Amino acid sequence: MKAASLSLSRLEGDLQMADRAKGTIQQYLASARRFEEFLGTDVSEAGQEAIRRWVDHLRTQPIGPERLRCHYSALKFLYGRTLGQPEKVAFISMPRKDSPLPTVLSPAEIQRVLDGFLVAKYRVFFALIYATGLRIREASLLQTSDIDSMQQVIHVRHGKGGRERLVPMPSKLYGLLKAYWKHERPQLPWLFTTKGGRPLCHETARRALLCASAVAGIGKVVTPHMLRHSFATNLLEHGTDLRKIQVVLGHGSIRSTTIYTQVSPSQIAAVRSPLEDLTV
Predict the structure, then answer these.
(1) Confidence category of residue 245, pLDDT binned at 50, 70, 90
(2) In the chain, at which end, N or C, are there fewer CB atoms within 10 A of the end residue's CB?
């Protein structure tokens, strides 16, 4: 696969030249590697029909519109910029951004999902995401030094767009992380690692979550971002103001945060109907 490795190396170089964010580069490369595995050959040799099969495969996977957009964008950059074959991906249309309201899990459903994990490392990893609202990439790149037990916060150094922030660390989460670390002893500096000592693989973690959601039997395909949505909605339900939720989630705009007002039952139920002023 030397030719394929060369193609991916060129893709990485072109992304860096285009000044894409580090997280974007990693996502595009990961997507290109998966496509390469799907093809079983150099990506430069794939025809449009092979690319169509890959796109059709992606559309059958339990992934949201944002991740689908990422896969499509990776293909468009790879063939449009790196390989100079834009006609091969001209058929791709991006999913609309105005996606349906986020799916939120109840605390009981979250509990059943967490109980469904067979490997303790993944149970703690996704408990962390639910407890803090971190994105999966942010959680996978946490280092042990990011855990501040004195201030009861976690320092997120690899936020979206390169933004750093602090998120609260409740005592129950700290106890869970402490017990996990004593048992697992992950290779420093990372908090969650593979057997080879690298940061936890996103795709492996996603598969573990899919298996746990199947074991839970809640009738939903659970994604990491669904846990983040559930965290934010829970904060809103308990009276946390939107500005604080925005800061904790790392949203660049409050507009991204206001969507949770549309899925919070207490917020909806609190809306006063004009019928209350009538005698009926």
Answers:
(1) confident
(2) C
